[in-house]
Amino acid sequence: MCGIAGIIHLQGRPLIAESDGHMLAAMAAAMRHRGPDDCRQVLWQNVGFVFTRLSIIDIAGGQQPFETSDGRVVAMVNGEIYNHRALRQHELAGVSLTSQSDCEVIPYLYLQRELDLFGPVNGMFAMALLDRTRRRVLLGRDRTGVKPLFYCLVDAGQTLVFASELKALFAHPLVPRRFDWQAALARYSDQDTQPREFSSGFLGIERVAAAGLLDISLDTGALRRSLYWQLPARAETPPGQDPASYIAEYGSLLEDSVRLRLMADARFGVFLSGGVDSAAITAMAARQASFPTFSVISQSTIGSGDAAASRFLAEHLGLPNHQVFFDLEHIRIDADDWRRLLWSCEMPGVTAEQLYKYFLHAYAKQIYPDLKVILLGQGSDEFNGGYTDWTLDTQAGVSSKVPDRWRAMGRFFDSLDTTAAAIRTGYMGDYADLIDRGVIDQAFVRQGSAAQPERTIWDQYYGYYRQNLDYHLWHEDRTAAAHSIENRVPFLDYRLLVCVSQVPEQHQRHLFTDKHILRAAVAKWLPTQIAQRPKGPFFYGKDQHHTFRLVYSILTGNGGELIEQALRGSQRSAGPLHPERFRQYVTEVGRDPALPELTRMMGLVNMGVLADLAAEGKPPPPRRGSLPVVEIRPKEFSALCGGAVTALAATNRVPMAPGSAAGIGAEVSDQSVPGFAPGVRLIEQPVASGQWVLAAAESLGAVIDSPGWLQFLRRIDGKRSIAAIMLSGTFNRSRALRSLRTAIDQGLVVIETQDPSI
Questions:
Q1: What is the rounded average pLDDT of the residues 736-757?
Q2: Of 2, 103, 499, 641, which one is the catalytic site residue?
Q3: Which residues pair with 269 in a beta bridge?
Q4: Predicted model pTM
Q5: 152 is a catalytic site residue
Q6: Are strands 159-163 and 371-375 parallel, antiparallel or unpaired?
Q7: Could you read off the pLDDT of 405-424 as tens digits, one per residue?
């Protein structure tokens, strides 16, 4: 991770070394946290580049910007080119490079491929490239937009200014620093399934699109925008291509993605949440190196079981695990901490999650000053189906008893697309009720808005959550960069995205319900109880009130100074907050102990404070004193979490030998073939028609009150594997497996053999 910035006079006016060099230095200083190790400038005619370096690869020789040996091309790259060694051997065979830096391949790839330079590249990056011969500048970003890049036209469109962060743009006196209230208030209003990114959040400032190129002519000043990549169209399914082949391919690619992202000449670590995503990354990385792991421990993560799961997995893998404790009753986080968080993230969508991540990075850097890289589990949910239950339960309000929840999710997405299309076409005015009732065909309405190819439910799911991915990539980059750390995201290797995009429709329900494709792919690397842990929110849930109270106290503390700053920011940026009514609203929010209105209130406060900080143009003062977090030692952890880790360890099943029968303690995998224990049968109670039970001997056992679980039990025949049963019906995978394990532990179901055909 580094920082790039530049100034381009589009009408050809040369830069002045003294004044423009000073301006570039000011822009670099505003993002020095992104690159504290080195800073260099290049000025040429009407173009100026500045680069701040966080040295990770070829620490001694990887200074940027890079220049080709003939002097034609100058390039600077923020990020990593993970396959640079392969590119040197194949694409650039015979080219003599001057360093071992991964990013030096970029200018030479341009010489060979011009606008297709990123075709063979596997990496995360934001790039600025000057071609002195063709007199052009190219700005570009990686395929999913992991690395940021903003630009702004100023001086009546005669100058283009670009930078990795908004605050670096704000250092230029002509760049407007006016918060975009309309965009912020409409931030989540685009409720359809078209993939999109967020706007910059500030008037007059644009983002280079993910997988985008901005081609700037230095002769005419013309700008040409293009995309160099998108998810490929789904191919026809090869004969015999079954779900197991996609699972195997995904697992192999993920393992290679993790391997590539361990490339570093500096210390790295992993943020280990306790969920399957970060657990998979940790387990794969642990096969190649030893490294520290870091986890958040708070009332919320204790209550959800994440804290215990992360500690258990780290011990299982023999890795150090730093449990960073946020004692919400005693820690001291003040208004300036919140301002620093907002200024670092540059977005109004800041919540307690970003607060936790911000201080987790700070703590990691404090105890490992040479740590420069953190691997994350980000990006899995949006492509692998991690939000299927959340979508149905929270967004669509679909009952868990609905037999075909995958199709129900598709109907929910169709309704969103229909409404959005009806609004765009103008049908909503007179015909909204008829569209809703189906009198006017909803597919016709969707087709009339914009012609598009046939889309599957997975296509809709990915499009719906694409903006969510953008949100997470944005704040993960900034909370890490604030502490001179680079985050890496193995799940966003473009080969993995291509893999899941090619899964045919007939397999999508099975593979993308509750991330089955991932859980099955990593089962051989993880203990079962970790691989099959249900997805849970980071701090939302039954213990969220602890976190909500902390945030409300920060926002309203010290006489409501952040509330008053938000009102000042609204006034300075022509915003919408009414002073007296907003103060009254804040008071009303605090009257309910559960604070159900906190999220909306917090968003409005963030908007106003960020507007004021930007208008002022000065960063908040640095934090003095110790961090408001402490590390929990093993004895203290046991006191906080009770026997949670011991309980997890006790369920660490030892795989049974194929062909043997097992009950309690049996490993459960997709290949397992379940059967009823001797004397157990599935019967319908004669006194309660429609109610079924698992009966043991002559006594009644467990009542079956879930239609899905009953459907699963009726398919158990001692011959079909769990995978085969799952494919034969419409099941909520995680719930079915939880019920199965309960039945095994009760001695009602046994694992009889392993199906060799799966």
A1: 72
A2: 2
A3: 374
A4: 0.84
A5: no
A6: unpaired
A7: 899 999 999 988 888 877 77
